[in-house]
Amino acid sequence: MDADYHAASNGWALRAQFEEICHVAVQNEISALLGADQAQRTYGGQYGDLLRWMIQAALEYALANNIEPHHFEDDVLRDGLSIVGALRYAFINDPSNRSPNFLDHGNPIDLIKADKVPRIDRMSLECVVGDYLALPYRSQAMDRVLVRGLIAAETYAFGDEMLNEKTFGLFPARSPMKQTHVLLGYLRGQFTSGIVFGGIAVLGFGLSSGTIISEGAAAWIAGICLSLFLFFVATSTLALPYLWFNQAKARRRVRDLLATMTTLYNEQRSDGPISAYYVRERANDASRQGVVWPAPLFAILDDIISRTGRY
């Protein structure tokens, strides 16, 4: 009985020691971000929450594997803290921005339409996923943030490209949503053709009045211009329904893809458990429609599925 009691006491003492190490480490990280005074008055927002969840996972791993306190502090804990810092960096790469909240909770479509797309360093985010999967422990909170962040990265990138594309000079827009409507382009084309061919015909008659060319030649020029104008009108008119249909189809496809991606992103806001099987199935469906998700999204989902299947 005494041996069991002493063993339990030693276990509690070791846990208390580890918890103190974790508490100090979190406070140091928050102080480094917000300053010592501010760190005493705040919980640390998303950054602080994620730090605590990660070190809790590290603590449980260390206790279960009889890791020495100095090894825990120098290696196990440090790796987890650095991943949280790198994750924040992927969303906020601005030294002057000291906000502890880095993953926006707004509606992606509203932010994209307002041209206020959050900055996400996709390469850094993907590297964070790789470093996290290399850890010997996991945190459901980190699982959720990474899945949501990867979905957000592609959603915002695609939406910004489609809805906020910037064009220069005469270069046409690549996005179907930013291209000139086919009907307007058709009318502009007819007007331009009329100006060009009409101008050439008028010039021909002007030259004939000055005896530079004969009236017969001017009439031939006018006839050719009229024929070419009618030819262009006929061909563009015949092509109009086809081009109109294709443009409408392309725009509808963009809207459908954005709706699919935004819905999947918004579903990650649930406070309850989320099925990784469901998210992977939805992500696969979107991929078949043409969405190019970051490859680490499937890696993290597969890792979750291999454990509990939820996060």
Report on the architecture of this protein.
The chain is mainly α and 311 residues long. The protein has a domain at 1-102. 74% of the residues lie in helices and 0% in strands. The chain has helices spanning 2-34, 36-41, 45-64, 69-91, 108-113, 122-133, 140-163, 182-209, 215-266, 276-289, 295-307.
Describe the secondary structure blueprint for this structure.
Elements: H1 2-34, H2 36-41, H3 45-64, H4 69-91, H5 108-113, H6 122-133, H7 140-163, H8 182-209, H9 215-266, H10 276-289, H11 295-307
Question: Top keywords for this entry?
Answer:
disordered N terminus; mainly alpha; 0% strand; 311 residues; 74% helix
Helix fraction, binned, reads over 70%
Q: N-to-C terminal Cα separation, in Å?
A: 40 Å
Average residue-wise pLDDT: 90
Structural class: mainly alpha
- Count of individual beta strands: 0
The gyration radius over C-alpha positions equals 32 Å
Order of helices and strands: HHHHHHHHHHH
Biggest sheet layout? none
The proportion of residues in beta strands is: under 5%
Low-confidence stretches: 1-7
Any idea what the shape is?
elongated
Q: Count helical runs.
A: 11
